[in-house]
Amino acid sequence: MRYAIVTGTSKGLGAAIARHLLEQGIHVIGIARNRNKELIKVATERNVSYQHFICDLANGDQIDHVFATINDQIFKTGTQRVYLINNAATVNPIDTVANHTMEAIQAHMQINLVAPMLTTSLVLKKAKSYAIPTVVVNITSGAANRSTYGWSAYGASKAGLDRYTNTVALEEQELNTNNKAILFDPSIMDTSMQQDIRSVDKEAFADVEQFKRYKEEKQLRDTTVVAEVLVNLLVDDDQIENGKYYSIKQYV
Ligand SMILES: NC(=O)c1ccc[n+]([C@@H]2O[C@H](COP(=O)([O-])OP(=O)(O)OC[C@H]3O[C@@H](n4cnc5c(N)ncnc54)[C@H](OP(=O)(O)O)[C@@H]3O)[C@@H](O)[C@H]2O)c1
Fold this sequence. Notes:
The protein is of the alpha/beta class. It has helices at 12-23, 37-46, 60-74, 102-130, 152-174, 192-198, 208-216, 223-235; strands at residues 2-7, 27-32, 50-54, 81-86, 134-139, 180-185, 245-247. It binds NADP nicotinamide-adenine-dinucleotide phosphate (NAP).
């Protein structure tokens, strides 16, 4: 049996990834603050399980608690593979640095960086003690590699996630485990995150008009297309290169 833990499955890319994994016969454990009834339907049709955990990833104690339950369920005899897909993220606060509040900065870094670090640590600890090959996929963004006016928090958290993932991959290689850690950059997609981006004024986000044009000119990718590429990569996981930065742009 193969299990995938996917964060942010209530909508957007996470929902599409979960759907494709279920269609491939992989059991999915989804995490978000809101449920997704559609995924339960897909799971039933495909004779696999979709289990949802309500969890606010801004809260470390909730992550600890939820992952203790999840790990007890999936790390067992008969489990051949585990995937951990850290997809949930926020782009907020979008604003110039001097307008950031402590609460907004802390919540942002907790959701985008601390949560994936914590989930990776908790899952790899179990993967090691059970010797079950585990693939960690951290969803990144081009924003990690360039500065965007108004996106200092998002750029910083994604750049941190990139370095973290590369270091996890290095350690797993040195330790000679069967575990892998990769980055996947989905590029711009038509999700509620893009709605958030378009709703900000020019003083807070200098490139807002350009992002409105992306939508008007239909340049935002469909999450289904992006999720299919990632899931195709994962089902053939012997081909996955530990530590690699995969970008959707290499595929579609
Ligand atoms: N959209 C783009 O153009 C784009 C471009 C590059 C990279 N990305 C990356 O792709 C990934 C998916 O983005 P998306 O566009 O699909 O985003 P989205 O539509 O805004 O969905 C975000 C998901 O994350 C969950 N989430 C957010 N905050 C959470 C919290 N505090 N606790 C638990 N879950 C939380 C949301 O669930 P709840 O609200 O139900 O909790 C939702 O399921 C992100 O890592 C993003 O940085 C997106």
